[in-house]
Design goal:
67 helices, about 45% helix, about 10% strand, 6-stranded mixed β-sheet, 7-stranded parallel β-sheet, elongated
Length: about 1550
């Protein structure tokens, strides 16, 4: 980084700017914000006060600091450049940088920036001089251990050795530094002469004073290294190492005698690599150790002739012989006058050396540290046990095969990911051993590159992080066929260094918040540079070393690591966080003592034959969407952990925490009191037992629903049922956020695990918490498809879905289906009150009442007065402003957003806590809250990510806190505005997605009864509270505007603003907001619908104003209203197109709204004076709308509208036909079973679409037929009516489309008379009349309906006549309407008395019609799950003849009259209703057979005819003879109630 920062600040990257800001003391949140705003060096120079305050939101103090320090930096740089210019004329490169060290600015030495470019060799010296450390402080480092063989050691570039020194105790070496910067570039001869001269000069000095010493080359000394710090490590590029080794051959030529002595004292050169994090150039420090052993140098004085390369003679010459000695930190010649004295003192020096050597051998052995305790303390963060919820990141290299037998401690830890530098790890290393016990996903560093459009949540889901360990092969994989070869150190640095940096940064800065993970470097083989770079990246991104641990068995391997790490965090820190010298077997045994579960404990599942089987952990982890409950669940917990934690676990539950499996285990083993069984527990158990009783009509998937008041213990009841059934059933909890398909796959795997026969397996009891009905239906559907695919025998129970859902009216939901639903409420029964009173007494004897708050509240039945007093008492001691704000924010979210929370990381940021040591983190956080606030909050941990968060102990408490803390002074809207404006919470990195989703839900999510809410709301409950309770509609608009800005102009907030404005009749603003939303999402049918609703409401308001003000209804006066209605129609037509193109969503609201507006517009036009006041006014109106005729009165005023108004008849008819056809395929009365009504606001009538269609079709017909009143009164139909007029009267009478005609069967009042009238409007000889397809379909359907209502009526045409009429349908079936094809299948179904030829012809007609129907069905259904678009069976084949053989579904459904909707559903679903004797009398039993799961009946001449089963699981898997009832649908023919003969 130093190399990068020497450049002008203008060239700094965003990361370098962040480093500089951090150094000068700017707050972290501001640094992150500036980083996100992409402030680089160029922008830094342009920053002004206004930008920092308004855009970044800085306070004045921070703004002043940044601007002042920035200016100082610029001035310092200018001075530096001026000084460079004054010295630029000098030749010597080493003297060119005489820079005043006092002006040095300090910066950290790590960076996220890209590595520097590798300099050319001949530019190395210049490059180093140019990048002198002007902007960096220099970290100290220690030298290589003296004179030790086999030491693997490295230096970090720009670290600083202790200054050069003289002799101290003769054993501790003195040091001398030489940069050798210029000489290293010289040729071999010159370099060797220079090197030998310096070594021999230093060696002679050391030998003569009998002191050990080391001379270092590549380290800056103060004499010629201006711009560098004395002792700074730079390194030198090595051409060939033998140049330096061979240079010592000068010894023999430089010493006239005793050269072998010198050889004995001068050690061969050592080459210590210099690691530069910003470059890939290899550099070394060359060191020579001098060891003048007394046995060699005794009584000797050494004189040397130093070699020197003379440029004049171009050869090496030797200087005059001289005696040298070390004086302080220098080597100097002994001058003549001191020679005799120097010789005389030889004996003294020898004696000192001999004594020093003797003391060295007699020194005490190394002190033995308690490494076991140190290891435990580091791994547990000072606690008694390793936290179960703590994530570990492991960084390791090649494992010793013997050590692989001792990794049980690793298998028990929750490992997030492993950075593995062993390419053979999956073949023979740690990975292969780990996979024997756990599931893991193999990844490369490239896998951790996140694309720009992917959120962190999507990324973690994509890689299955948090589910299974991610095994990252950092240096390739030898067993992998993909392109991942291992590479050498330098290639790795060039090609993979950047990707590693990105991976580490992503994990530490975006996926895992600080404090919930620990990094363990497990060094089991020699350390290479890539591993050191990995440490540096973690150290940088984790902002320190406190969560980094190093474990290393070999002292030798540790040396290189230590020398590198000390450069980052100092000697003490490295030693304190490293455990060196423990064997892996000792580590294994030691760490198992502080783990909460026993090593490699076996888990068991029950099996069908009443025994158990082992559940292997790696198999369990493959079913990652399920939390599987085993027979011996929690038995693996160690006794030490139980003794230590049992009170905390128990107390956490009674304080309001969610029930834990350990709570049940502790109660079962009598460590704590029993968990109370509420009455609902017995009810649910009975439902489970009933489901388990064998029944031939049993479905493969059974459902039981628990509806509970929030915080009433519904989840506890559900988990109690699972716990007590774990030995007889396979039980599991479905984890949130997994798709139904994945859960179903894992549930099937769990059911069949270790079972011999998939037909005989124990049922799986699945608990699904807080999911909506749609998800449950999806899951049920997926499981049914799975059991059907596997051909599980009909009547076999495979899965019980136990759904636990929040509801504000559980008793009502229970009454709807008492056999399936169970309610849990706040209200206690008398028996429960007795149980709770006894338990409360026992708990209060053990714990203070404040620490079992939720239980106390529950035992009081959550009495309103009690809750009020309780909150009042709780809030008395809270006066700290920031804590009060936090409580209010959490209370607001908890009141309005189900299951909301705020991460602890967010809370710490809000409270301004800066906690450096993890072991004190929780304590510091709780201390900052204060005693009272601690009681309000419940600490949660996410089951998947282990991220800590808080919520208020109960929703009712949250609501009461909100009321009491706000009082009369503050409103919820002002609190919500503060929450929206809080940058710290919104921008905080960890848990950002969850926080923003809760905040978004606070302003957008509407209440839905089906989701367990108290009512269906029109806006979010908070917005409704502001509008109604605070009486501030404008404040509600302000809030949503702020939210729109805060969420980066999200179009859905604009949509809500449009709805809010048109509700308040602010139509101009509503239009602008709707257009803003539509601009961003032009193809979103829901937003286009909202745009249409704006104009629709506007049109209604204008009509109301015309009526209210008694405005004369002239063309001019109502032109504005007409234009608005036409704009609404345009918007709805756009909405229809977008909805048709959307293959994944259903939105029919555009069609319904178009008809509604069309009817209102027709009403307005009809009331126009020109049309209303004349005798023939209605005829004039129709003439205007249906022909080219334009009355004079409207010609000019409506000039822009004529074309569109004349299309009104056609567009409305098309919309009505679309709705009719859609209902014919998938007919449901939405709302009957509590499902959601359509999105369109104000269309409450569409909750019963069949009735709505009948009414609107009639209204449409009324406006376009002037003689409707005559027809209604039963008078004679005028003879001169045109076909169009007749068609409109038919529409008005309810015969305009197939759905309206069939709806007469459900509302038979006047139906027969109306149908007769309709028939009289058709030609007396329809075969001769040239009907259109729709007319034929409607005509036939009237006959069928009339026959169903009153079979004796003479007017009904015989079947044969209707069949003949069908021949007018196009012969090309692709041109037929779906309703025409439906009638062909119905009318041409062969009869028993038909001849073979007749049957053949009929089968062919039916077969070709069914083929086309199926194609049309798939187009119509889109990609919507079948359960959402269930095909509707209109008729069944009855036992009668002619038209009497067609029995309408309504007639069949009468057998379940008197039951509730859900019970009716269940009776038909389970097949009970089909067994009623009335059905057998009514319907004809058809014979057929199945082949490989396909249903057939026999056609003419033994030809097979395929029939679709209505309920796929009812088809036997073996080839069987069957009977069934035949149904007629718009998809074709279906087989119902399939029975094996």
């Amino acid at each position: 980084m130093a190399d990068e920062l020497e450049q002008s600040p203008k060239g700094w990257t965003e990361s370098q700017v962040s480093d500089w800001l951090r150094l000068i003391g700017v707050k972290k949140q501001y640094i992150e914000k500036l980083y996100e705003e992409e402030v680089d060096g160029h922008i830094l120079l342009a920053l002004n006060e206004d930008f920092l305050k308004t855009k970044i939101g800085m306070k004045s103090g921070s703004v002043l600091l940044i601007i002042q320090k920035r200016d100082e930096l610029i001035n310092s740089k200018k001075k530096s450049q001026e000084k460079k210019k004054t010295t630029s004329g000098k030749k010597n490169e080493l003297e060119q940088k005489n820079i005043d060290q006092k002006s040095v600015q300090c910066l950290p030495t790590t960076s996220e920036g890209p590595p520097a470019q590798i300099p050319e060799k001949d530019q190395a010296v210049v490059k180093d001089r140019q990048t002198a450390q002007v902007f960096t402080s220099k970290e100290d480092c220690r030298p290589r251990p003296f004179d030790q063989e086999g030491i693997d050691f490295i230096y970090r570039k720009h670290r600083v050795l202790q200054p050069e020194s003289g002799a101290s105790n003769l054993i501790s070496p003195c040091h001398e530094f030489k940069s050798l910067a210029v000489a290293a570039e010289l040729d071999r001869t010159r370099l060797q002469a220079k090197f030998a001269k310096e070594v021999l000069k230093f060696a002679t000095g050391c030998m003569n004073i009998r002191s050990n010493g080391t001379i270092h080359f590549g380290v800056m000394d103060s004499k010629d290294d201006a711009g560098y710090v004395h002792g700074e490590i730079i390194g030198i590029p090595l051409q060939e190492k033998d140049i330096y080794v061979d240079a010592l051959d000068y010894i023999e030529r430089s010493f006239s005698s005793n050269s072998e002595h010198v050889r004995g004292c001068v050690r061969p050169p050592r080459f210590i690599e210099v690691v530069d994090l910003e470059s890939t150039e290899k550099r070394y420090v060359v060191e020579v150790d001098i060891v003048p052993s007394i046995s060699i140098v005794k009584n000797k004085v050494y004189a040397v002739r130093l070699p020197n390369f003379k440029e004049s003679s171009n050869k090496v010459e030797f200087e005059k012989e001289m005696i040298l000695r070390r004086v302080g930190s220098k080597t100097e010649p002994v001058i003549d006058k001191d020679i005799s004295d120097f010789f005389e003192r030889v004996k003294d020096r020898d004696a000192q050396r001999e004594e020093a050597e003797k003391n060295l051998f007699l020194s005490a052995p190394d002190f033995c540290h308690d490494l076991g305790r140190k290891l435990k303390m580091l791994m547990t963060c000072g606690k008694k046990f390793i936290e179960k919820d703590k994530w570990f990141i492991l960084v390791t290299n090649e494992f010793n095969p013997d050590d692989l037998c001792n990794i049980e401690w690793l298998l028990n830890m929750t490992i997030f990911c492993v950075f593995d530098f062993d390419p053979n790890s999956k073949i023979s290393g740690l990975c292969s051993k780990y996979l024997e016990h756990h599931a893991a996903n193999m990844h490369s560093l490239q896998s951790y590159r996140i694309s720009g459009d992917m959120s962190i949540k999507e990324f973690t889901s994509h890689l299955h992080l948090f589910e299974q360990t991610s095994w990252i092969f950092c240096n390739g994989r030898n067993d992998f066929k993909g392109n991942e070869p291992p590479c050498d150190e330098m290639t790795w640095i060039k090609t993979k260094m950047t990707v590693l940096r990105e991976s580490v940064s992503l994990i530490c800065k975006q996926i895992l918040p600080k404090g919930i993970f620990q990094v363990v470097f497990l060094l089991t083989s020699p350390v290479e540079k890539p591993l050191l770079h990995t440490f540096n990246e973690f150290f940088t991104d984790m902002e320190g070393h406190e969560d980094i641990i190093c474990i290393c068995e070999s002292q030798k391997n540790f040396q290189k690591w230590q020398s590198f790490a000390e450069g980052s965090c100092g000697t003490d820190s490295v030693n304190n966080s490293s455990v060196v010298g423990m064997k892996m077997s000792h580590i294994n045994a030691t760490l198992q003592q502080v783990q909460s579960v026993k090593a490699c404990a076996r888990k068991h599942l029950p099996v069908f034959v009443k025994g158990t089987c082992v559940l292997e952990t790696h198999e369990e982890e493959k079913m990652y969407s399920l939390e599987i409950l085993t027979v011996d669940h929690c038995d693996e917990t160690t006794k030490d952990f139980i003794d230590e934690e049992k009170a905390n676990i128990d107390q956490q539950f009674y304080h309001g925490g969610r029930i834990n499996w350990l709570n049940f285990w502790l109660a079962e083993h009598k460590y704590v009191g029993e968990v109370i069984e509420r009455d609902a527990y017995q009810d649910v158990s009975n439902c489970v037992n009933d489901a388990l009783k064998w029944n031939a009509d049993q479905t493969s998937v059974n459902s039981i629903n628990i509806f509970h008041h929030p915080g009433s213990g519904g989840s506890t009841v559900a988990r109690q049922v699972l716990w007590n059934n774990r030995k007889g059933l396979r039980c599991a909890v479905v984890k949130p956020s997994y798709s139904a398909a994945v859960v179903a796959q894992h549930a099937v795997e769990l059911r069949e695990y270790e079972e011999k026969n998939q037909q005989t397996c124990l049922p799986v009891l699945l608990l699904i918490e807080d999911s909506d009905k749609e998800y449950l239906d999806d899951l049920r559907n997926e499981l049914e498809v799975a059991t059907n695919t596997k051909r599980i025998q009909h009547g076999t129970l495979c899965f019980i879905l136990l759904s636990c859902r929040r509801s504000h009216n559980p008793e009502k939901r229970c009454k709807e289906s008492p056999l399936q639903n169970v309610s849990v409420t706040h209200k206690l029964s008398d028996q429960e009150k007795r149980k709770f009173a006894g338990k409360r007494k026992a708990l209060e004897a053990r714990y203070e009442a404040d620490f079992i708050l939720t239980f106390v509240l529950m035992s009081e039945g959550f009495d309103e007065k009690y809750v009020q007093q309780f909150v009042e008492h709780l809030l008395q001691g809270i006066d700290h402003q920031s804590v009060t704000s936090l409580i209010l924010y959490v209370a607001l979210l908890n009141t309005y957003v189900q299951n909301s929370f705020i991460s602890q990381s967010h809370c710490e940021a809000l409270l301004g806590l800066s906690i450096h040591l993890e072991r004190f983190r929780q304590h510091e956080f709780e201390r900052s809250l204060g005693d009272q606030a601690k009681l309000v909050f419940l600490h949660l941990r996410d089951d998947e990510t282990h991220i800590e968060s808080i919520r208020i102990i109960h929703p009712l408490i949250a609501k009461e806190i909100l009321q009491q803390l706000l009082g009369n002074q503050q409103t919820q809207s002002s609190l919500a505005m503060k929450l929206l404006s809080n940058d710290v919470l919104f921008e905080h990195r960890f848990g950002r997605d969850e926080y923003r989703s809760f905040l978004r839900a606070l302003f957008i999510r509407r209440f839905r009864i089906i989701k367990g809410d108290t009512y269906d709301s029109y806006f979010s409950p908070l917005i409704e509270h502001v509008r109604e309770n605070e009486k501030s509609p404008d404040k509600a608009i302000e809030l949503l505007k702020k939210a729109f800005q805060r969420f980066h102009e999200d179009p859905f907030f604009a949509q809500q603003l449009a709805r809010l404005h048109y509700t308040d009749e602010k139509f101009e603003e509503a239009k602008n907001w709707a257009e803003t939303a539509a601009k961003q999402l032009p193809n979103n049918s829901y937003i286009l619908d909202t745009k249409g609703q704006v104009y629709r409401k506007w049109f209604q308001a204008k009509c109301k104003a015309i009526e209210h003000d008694n405005v004369p209804k002239t063309a001019q006066n109502i032109a504005d209203a007409v234009e608005t209605a036409l704009k609404a129609l345009e918007c709805f037509q756009e909405c229809e197109k977008a909805a048709d193109a959307d293959m994944e969503n259903l939105n029919s609201s555009g069609f319904f709204s178009e008809v509604e507006v069309g009817c209102s517009l027709l009403k307005l036009i009809s009331s126009l004076q020109v049309f209303a006041n004349r005798a023939n006014g209605h005829s004039e109106c129709m003439k205007y709308l249906l022909t080219d005729y334009i009355p004079e009165e409207v010609e000019d005023a409506w000039e822009p509208f004529h074309g569109r108004l004349k299309k009104l008849n056609k567009t409305m008819q098309d919309a009505l036909e679309w709705i009719s056809e859609d209902l014919s395929y998938f007919q449901t009365d939405i709302g009957l079973d509590g499902e959601e009504t359509p999105e369109s606001p104000g269309l409450s009538s569409v909750s019963h679409p069949l009735k709505w269609l009948a009414i609107k079709s009639s209204v449409y017909g009324k406006y376009f037929s002037e003689t409707y009143s005559t027809a209604l009164q039963g008078g004679s139909i005028p003879a001169n009516l045109t076909p169009f007029q007749k068609r409109m009267i038919i529409y008005h009478l309810g015969g305009g489309n197939i759905t309206s005609i069939l709806s007469k069967l459900t509302d038979p009042k006047d139906a027969v008379q109306r149908l007769k009238t309709i028939l009289s409007l058709y030609p007396s000889n329809p075969k001769m009349a040239k009907f259109g397809q729709r007319d034929i379909v409607n005509y036939i359907m009237v006959h069928l309906t009339l026959n169903c209502l009153s079979p004796q009526i003479q007017k009904v045409a015989p079947l044969k006549d209707l069949q003949e009429l069908c021949h007018q349908f196009p012969t090309d079936k692709r041109k037929c309407l779906p309703s025409a094809l439906f009638l062909l299948t119905l009318l041409f179904w062969p009869e028993d008395h038909d001849t073979d030829d007749e049957k053949k012809n009929k089968y062919e007609i039916v077969h070709s019609a069914v083929e086309q129907l199926e194609k049309g069905y798939w187009t119509k259904r889109k990609d919507i799950p079948q359960r959402k678009r269930r095909i509707y069976t209109h008729f069944f084949l009855g036992s009668g003849n002619g038209l009497d053989k067609f029995v309408h579904k309504r007639k069949v459904e009468e057998v379940t009259k008197g039951f509730s909707i859900s019970e009716k559903r269940m009776k038909w679903f389970r097949g009970e209703a089909w067994k009623k004797p009335e059905i057998a009398t009514m319907l004809k039993c058809v014979s057929g057979w199945t082949e490989d799961g396909v249903v057939y009946i026999e056609g003419p001449r033994k030809k097979k005819f395929n029939i679709q089963p209505h309920y796929v699981p009812s088809v036997p898997h073996s080839n069987e003879n069957i009977t069934f009832y035949l149904g007629f649908t718009f998809k074709g023919l279906v087989a119902c109630n399939i029975i094996v003969k």
